[in-house]
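User: Structure tokens for this complex, please. No commentary.
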Amino acid sequence: MTVSRSDVRPIRTEAEVVAARQAVRSWAVEMKFSLIDQTKLVTAASELARNALNYGGGGQMRMEILERSPRQGLRLTFEDQGPGIADVEQALRDGFTTGSGMGLGLGGSRRLVDEFEIHSAPGEGTRVTVVKWR
Amino acid sequence: MERIPILKMGRFLLVTIQVDMHDQLALALQDDLTSQIARTGARGVLIDISSLEIVDSFIGRVLANIASMSRILDAETVVVGMQPAVAITLVELGLSLPGVRTALNVERGMELLHASLRAAELEEYDGGGEEDDAFGGHDGLS
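Assistant:
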């Protein structure tokens, strides 16, 4: 599996969250994802970017196009240097929130993608990686 | 600050969301709509989201908040024009927009608001007073 293209977007303001999801949309369109899969990817990106901003104090999103012939995938990695998550299993459960959201961000976005990985520990920030294949 | 415009048409307020909203903009719309309902005495709110390419959990929550706040202020809210891909994604995300009425397009949404207003007025007339309605049961057509 190779990475044929990559880019990094900052997520430090709400405007950058909007810019990040627009970038995901534009790559997903170029990669010829179906409209439904584009929508799922952009929605997942929006949830994860907001988490990085609101709970992680901001961070970045890495976008990568994966080549695994004959398939192509879009991998998004969200990283922040925030307080981290003590109980990742709990954070993935629907309805769990420490903030103002509905508690669907993590668990919900996991359902919208093909692969989902989260690394987090108190004091070490959070890294969420998602992949969608087409 | 940037704002989503709210139009008044008769006894209804109309909003068409045509930009990719950041979170503060969505919250500002929630505040503006609530104060406009109170100020104008509007009986219905129609929100057209046909240009929205995604509805994530935050926007979903704002729509649900608008619906419950307007209900408390005696106005019915209907959200119209959701794109099919957005609806599919919403359900997988786990969001069912509780308490939010939806219609396929603006025309059907307006019909719903008119019907709901007629029903409410008929009930007010038949009931002959506020006391009958004091404990709810005022849920439009449902």
